[in-house]
Specification:
Elements lengths: L2 H16 L8 H24 L9 E9 L4 E7 L6 H15 L8 H20 L3 H10 L1 H11 L4 H29 L6 H4 L6 H18 L8 H8 L2 H26 L1 H6 L1 H20 L4 H20 L4 H32 L10 H4 L1 H15 L5 H16 L1 H26 L6 H4 L6 H19 L2 H25 L1
Antiparallel strand pairs: 1-2
Length: 493
C-alpha cells in the first residue's frame, strides 16, 4: 500500500471503526480516537509534498492494481502539480473539523466523527483517481456522508437542505456517467483518464461530452445558475459540514474541469470558453450583489464562496498560465479562508445560537482575541494583499488583462464587492458599542478554539506573504496542460 492509498483508506477505515463504538457511552474516547486518526492521516500526506518532483508534469506516487478485470477497470492512483495540494488540504481541514466539534457535538459523537473521516478519505480519492470509473465512485460516494451530516446534525430545515443538496449533485452527475461509458468504448475498452486525454474526438462529440461534464462539475462548483442548493446546505449544515463543504467539496467540481473538460474536450473548451466566462462573471458580479443584502452570516459567506469559485472557473477558461495557475491557487486559498470564516461563525453561534447579523454588535469589546482572528480572515476574504485571498485573484486578473482588458476589469470588480459585503458584516458584528446583553455576556475563545483558528491563520498569512512554494509545484503541470489544449486546438482546426 502506497502513500496515496494510506491517505485514502486510513481515514475511511478509522471512520468505519468509530461507527462501531457505542453511540455516546464512550464520547471522550471517540473524540481522541478521531483526533489521532485525522492527525495521522494528515501526517501521511506530508511526504507527498516533500517527495514531489516539481520539474515534471508526469504523474507521481502512482499505484495501479487490477479491480474489475472483466471491464478492464483498475485501482489507479497518482498525483501531479494540478492535484497535489488538495490532498494535504483535505486532511488538514479534517483535523480542524474534529477539533471544532470537540465540545459542540454531544449526541451521536461516534457517527459524526466517523462520517467526517470517511468523507475525508473519499474526497482524497477523487483528487488521486486516474481511472474514470474509480473517479466516479469516489465522486458520488462523497454525497452519502455529507447528506447524513446535514440531515442528522443540521438546523431546523436540515432534511429539505440535505435532499436538495443530494438531488442537485446526483442529477448533475448522471450525464457524466454516460460520458465516461462513451469514452470507455471509444478508447477500446479502457477507463484510463490519461489515455482519454489523447483520444481524437470530432467537434460535435467534444461538445456533447463537454456539456455532460459541465453539468456534473458546474453543480458541484457551484456555478450560476445551478448554485441555489449551496446557501441552503450551508445554513442548515453544522459548522463542520459548512467548513468541509466550502473548503473541499466545492473544489471537486473545479478539479473536474482540470482533469476532464480541458484535456479531453480541448476544442469544445475553446469554443465554449465565452459561455463559461460569461457564467463566471455573472457569479462574480451578480452573486456579489446578492451577498451584499444578506442578513444571515452563513448565507453571506456561502454567496461569497460562489463568487470566489466563479473566479476559479474564469481563470481556467482564459487559457493562459497566470489565469490557470491563479485559479488553482484560488482554490487552495479559498479552502483555508472559507473554512476559517465558517468556523468564526460557528464560534459565535455556539454562544448566542443565532446567525443573524442583527443579533450582534460590539463583539470586539467582549471577545478581543477572537475578533483579531475574525477580522484577519475577513480581510483575506476581501482579497487584502498579504493574505492568501489576494494571490489567486491577482494572478487571475493579470492573466485576464493579457486576454481582454474589459474582462479583467469586470472580474476585478469582485474585490470591490467583496470588500463591501465582508466589511459591512464585520462593522455590524464586531465593532461599535456592545449591542445587547447577549454580546455583553460573551466570553473570549478558549484554548481549543484559539488552536484551530491559529492553525488556519498561519497558512492564510504564509500563502499571502510567500506563495512561491504553492505555485512552483503546479507550474510545469499547468504549462503542459495548456500546451496539450493548444496543440489539440491547432490539430482540430
Amino acid at each position: 500500500m502506497g502513500l496515496l492509498s494510506l491517505a485514502i483508506w486510513l481515514p475511511i477505515a478509522s471512520g468505519a471503526l468509530l461507527l462501531a463504538f457505542g453511540r455516546d457511552q464512550h464520547a471522550g474516547a471517540v473524540r481522541w480516537a478521531a483526533l489521532a486518526a485525522s492527525l495521522l492521516s494528515f501526517v501521511v500526506t506530508l511526504p507527498l509534498i516533500s517527495g514531489f518532483d516539481a520539474g515534471t508534469a508526469a504523474m507521481q506516487f502512482q499505484e495501479k492494481l487490477g479491480w474489475i478485470s472483466r471491464f478492464n477497470v483498475h485501482y489507479h492512483l497518482g498525483l501531479d502539480g494540478l492535484s497535489l495540494w488538495f490532498v494535504p488540504l483535505t486532511a488538514f481541514i479534517t483535523v480542524i473539523v474534529v477539533i471544532s466539534a470537540w465540545d459542540v457535538i454531544t449526541e451521536r459523537v461516534n457517527q459524526y466523527m466517523g462520517a467526517f473521516l470517511i468523507l475525508s478519505g473519499l474526497m482524497v480519492g477523487v483528487f488521486c483517481a486516474l481511472d474514470g470509473l474509480l473517479f466516479y465512485v469516489f465522486f458520488e460516494a462523497t454525497l452519502i456522508p455529507m447528506y447524513l451530516i446535514i440531515g442528522v446534525w443540521g438546523g431546523a430545515r436540515r432534511v429539505y437542505a440535505a435532499f436538495k443538496f443530494f438531488l442537485y449533485t446526483l442529477a448533475g452527475s448522471l450525464l457524466m456517467l454516460v460520458a465516461l461509458i462513451y469514452l470507455y468504448y471509444k478508447s477500446g475498452g479502457s477507463f484510463e483518464i490519461l489515455a482519454w486525454h489523447q483520444l481524437p474526438l470530432a467537434a460535435n462529440v467534444q461538445t456533447l461530452l463537454f456539456f455532460a461534464f459541465f453539468l456534473a462539475f458546474a453543480v458541484k462548483v457551484p456555478m450560476w445558475p445551478v448554485h441555489t442548493w449551496l446557501p441552503d446546505a450551508h445554513v442548515e449544515a453544522p459548522t463542520g459540514g459548512s467548513v468541509v463543504l466550502a473548503a473541499i467539496m466545492l473544489k471537486l467540481g473545479a478539479y473536474g474541469f482540470l482533469r476532464f473538460s480541458l484535456p479531453i474536450t480541448p476544442d469544445a473548451s475553446h469554443q465554449w470558453a465565452g459561455f463559461m466566462i460569461a457564467l463566471s462573471l455573472i457569479a462574480v458580479i451578480y452573486v456579489g450583489f446578492v451577498a451584499l443584502v444578506q442578513q444571515d452570516m452563513k448565507k453571506l459567506v456561502a454567496y461569497s464562496s460562489i463568487v470566489h469559485m466563479g473566479f476559479v472557473t474564469f481563470g481556467f477558461f482564459i487559457f493562459n498560465e497566470l489565469g490557470l495557475a491563479g485559479g488553482i491557487v484560488q482554490m487552495v486559498s479559498h479552502g483555508f479562508v472559507s473554512g476559517a470564516m465558517f468556523l468564526c461563525i460557528g464560534v459565535l453561534y455556539d454562544r448566542v445560537h443565532s446567525r443573524e447579523i442583527a443579533a450582534y454588535g460590539g463583539v470586539a469589546n467582549t471577545m478581543p482575541k477572537f475578533t483579531a482572528f475574525a477580522v484577519l480572515f475577513a480581510m483575506a476574504n476581501c482579497g487584502l494583499p498579504g493574505t492568501a485571498g489576494f494571490v489567486g485573484e491577482w494572478m487571475v486578473i493579470l492573466g485576464a488583462v493579457k486576454t481582454n482588458f474589459w474582462l479583467a476589469f469586470a472580474a476585478a470588480s469582485t474585490m470591490v464587492f467583496g470588500a463591501a459585503y465582508t466589511l459591512w458584516m464585520v462593522k455590524r458584528v464586531y465593532f461599535g458599542a456592545v449591542a445587547n446583553e447577549h454580546v455583553a455576556k460573551l466570553t473570549d475563545i478558549n484554548a481549543r478554539e484559539f488552536l484551530m483558528l491559529a492553525a488556519l491563520a498561519i497558512p492564510v498569512l504564509w500563502m499571502g506573504v510567500y506563495p512561491k512554494p504553492f505555485t512552483d509545484v503546479m507550474q510545469v503541470s499547468v504549462t503542459e496542460l495548456l500546451r496539450h489544449v493548444a496543440l489539440s486546438k491547432l490539430g482540430g482546426s
